[in-house]
Amino acid sequence: LYIDRHAADEIIEHCAIMAKKGLEALGFLVGDLYIWKGERYSVVHEIVTGELESTAVSVKFRRDEFENLFDKLDEIEYDYVLIGWYHSHPGYTSFMSSIDMDTQSRMFNREFHVALVIDPINLEFKAFRISNGKCIEVPYAVFEE
Q: Using CA atoms, how far apart are residues 126 and 111, in angstroms rounded to an integer?
């Protein structure tokens, strides 16, 4: 997994702003899939987020926000892939809760789908995927174009 520096900065900023309010953040990871020497890898080029229903321990997009989210996705000028999602656990460390694992299994169940979990208080940033029903931490690198 590779994450563009600009996208990583946007994720961290969004999570930090929400953490100052005592709330979780949420968004989609948008990018593309590539193959190099027979190995597939994902690159996150940007994020898409919107208005949230958020508490200190839960977050979801507002029901009336999906049209706006789809409009933002439609504005992307390349044939993107939804790489996964990000959300924050402010002050609770970066881990996949049982609800997170259920979300990942139901909504982001392709081999390349990832979940980024950010704790902006403890400065943790981890990536996970579900493989054979198990949650696996995924190595990642942030790069600059």
A: 17
pLDDT tens string 82-113: 999 999 999 999 999 999 999 999 999 999 99
Cα distances (angstroms) measured from residue 144 to each of 82, 97, 109, 137: 20, 31, 28, 23
Name the strand (E) or helix (H) holding 74. Answer: helix 66-74
Task: For residue 73, give the nearest of 110, 112, 31, 117 by alpha carbon.
Answer: 31
In this structure, the dihedral spanned by the alpha carbons of residues 16, 113, 101 and 9, taken in order and rounded to 10 degrees, is: -10
* pLDDT of the residue at 59: 93
Give the DSSP letter of residue 113: -
What is the pTM (predicted TM-score) of this model?
0.93
How many CB atoms are located within 10 Å of the residue 99 CB? 10
Domains of the chain, each with CATH number or no CATH: 2-143 (3.40.140.10)
Tell me the per-residue pLDDT of 17-53, one tens digit each, with 9 for 90 and over: 999 999 999 999 999 999 999 999 999 999 999 999 9
β-pairing, 114-119 vs 81-88, is parallel
